[in-house]
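Recap for those who missed Tuesday's class. We walked through two folding examples back to back. For each one, the amino acid string is listed first and its predicted structure tokens come directly after. Nothing is annotated here on purpose, so try labeling regions yourself before you check the end of the notes.
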Amino acid sequence: MRILTVCGLGQGSSLILKMNVESVLKNIGITAEVENSDVSTALFEKADLIITNKELAENLENSAVPILIVKNYFDKNEIRNVLVDYLKKYK
């Protein structure tokens, strides 16, 4: 599984989200390649899943890739809940 974490410029908050997604995935026993990206590049990246916030998700709505929305990139519980809910539905 390849996951993209997305922010406006692809450097700051998407990197924080990437590290937190990796931590959550490790804790729930899921192996995935996680990369961070800016919103423009994310439209052209090959990925199985995109994780971002609501505002940026609106810019990605033409993507064929499922998009998960988190409000707080630092909240590992929220990230975990969003990922687990997605995995229960689509795995």
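Example two. Treat it independently of the first, because the proteins are unrelated.
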Amino acid sequence: MHGSASPLSASVSSWLLVLLCAVSGAYCLRRVRGWGGAAAGEAVMGFGMALMAAPLGGGGEWRTPVLGAVFCAAALHALWLLRGGAHHAHHLVGSLTMVYMAAGSGHGHGAGPPLLTGALLLYYAGYVVLGGTRLITPVGPAPGPSGPVTRAAHAAHTATTELIRACRLAMGMGMLAMLLSM
């Protein structure tokens, strides 16, 4: 992340973004066993975003081609996931956005056309707002028969769903922050 803030505050905010993305990636990696492809793609995105946001200073010439290759592979994976439905299109947009940002970071200046960057900023701002509203929307009572087991299962499912939404929201905010810093 490059910006006009003081070096210390830029470094702290960069490392906080690295931490946020790495924790999100780790949680998604933990979910891969039960959720499969989509969670794997989210894990790659989280770890890749963490690496891209890391303020490593000099010697980062390897990052542009490596991250570009990783995110191109993630875009191909997202295309594969689209067989399961259009709801996986966000993975494709995210992967291509990361390719775009990786290519721009290698030149030491903004990535590309301001119109494309602006469109991506609008997309992620909308994604974050929508994700935030979904996260605060109250969940209704458990359907079906009531009882302690059903309520406990519903509570566990609700907590997992909210954590997944929070993870996606965190990565959306990270993407928005990285786009803003270009």
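Answers for example two:
The radius of gyration is 18 Å.
The chain has a mean pLDDT of 79.
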